[in-house]
Amino acid sequence: MLQINMADVVNVIKSLVPYLVVIGVLLVLAIIISFAVNKKTVKNVGTRKLVHSETWLVALVAIVAAVSMMLTGPMSTLLNNASAQKYELSQNTVKKANQLAEDVENEAITLLKNDDSTLPLKSKKVNVFGWGSTNPVYGGTGSGSMSKQYPTVSMLQGMKNAGLQPNAKLSKLYTDYRKERPEVGMFAQDWTLPEVPANQYSQSLINQTKSYSDQAVVVISRVGGEGADLPTNMKSKDIKYTNNSKDYEDFQDGQSILQLDQTEKNMLDLVTKNFKNVTVVYNGANTFQFDFLDQYPQIKSLVWCPPAGQTGFTSLGRVLAGDVNPSGRTSDTFLKNLKQSVNYNNFGDFKYNNVDEFAQTFAGFTGKNETVKPRSSTTPRVSTSVTVSMRPPPRKASSTTTIWCVIRSVTA
After folding, report:
1. What is the Cα–Cα distance from 287 to 353, expressed in whole angstroms?
2. Looking at residue 365, what is its pLDDT?
3. What does the alpha-carbon distance between residue 309 and residue 143 come to, in Å, rounded to a whole number?
4. Are residues 46 and 110 in the same domain?
5. Is 105 found in the same domain as 45?
6. Do 45 and 177 belong together in one domain?
7. Cβ–Cβ contacts within 10 Å for residue 7, how many?
8. Are 300 and 332 members of one domain?
9. Residue 225: its H or E element
10. Per-residue pLDDT, 377
11. How close are the terminal C-alpha atoms of the chain, in Å?
12. For the chain, how many structural domains are there in total?
């Protein structure tokens, strides 16, 4: 959801402080004068009443003036927004926007691996593993976040829209485990990755999934956006995270959020033990560390599905079903070790104490020499999220024209 910009709230409150101070001072003065003018100090009753009435009359006029200046000054924009006529998008505009979201996602979904032509899926029935399948990442954490004013198409609903039939009993396991995704926004971050521990999959459920379909899709999701750098060490003291099990830690010291956690590894062990052809769907904006792929020969295909917006997950369903060619291109290299990346080692908050060395003198517009130097305050944060590059619209696929190729292999 879009969030209130706390910086704007703080600025409004600060702008009201002078007016509130004036109002407070006037009230205090009026009270002091009222108590000071009493029977002991002023014997005449008429004089006392006159002073009291005049004092509160002057205070009231001044307070009204201060409130009026406050309403027509700092709070004018808020009042105008609250009282202005509201407009809604027409259904035709909403329909076109939804279609545009699907078209963009058609071009954004990227095929990273497809051994033995595992995709498109050979059956409409499919077992979708992973808690993220029931609560995927739709957008970013700031201006790219979603609005509840308009309905969103979930990942499972998007698959259904494409004619696929996700295993409802398996999905229920995840919705029963947790319904809401932990908050990761501009002003609060809970980096917990909900995932059902492997020992909570009953044998009867595993048997049911194997009889339901031999097609297995595993969803791994990660949130990333403006307002907070992604943790490069999940064991840092300032990182809020709750393990999925009391029996083990999800992350070890030094591991980043862009690596598999232990619960996800256990889930992959479980899935690959019971299914020979596994497709992994990575739902996130950042390049993930896929160093585990070689450990699971059963993972035949890998799809990168960026945050899909209001309706984009229908495109994922169509890609898996073979109705749309995944025409996306990688906008960054997927390294087996993210610590080898230059940007991974050079983003964050840094303070410089040698800015005087870089002072520059030049002639200004007036002809006088001016000297400037870099600011010594903390440098702005660099977001680690990436944007998927767009390509020409994908061709409509059929059983004889579908082109399933590897866009780029995961590199060492």
Report:
1. 33
2. 80
3. 12
4. no
5. no
6. no
7. 10
8. yes
9. none
10. 52
11. 37
12. 2
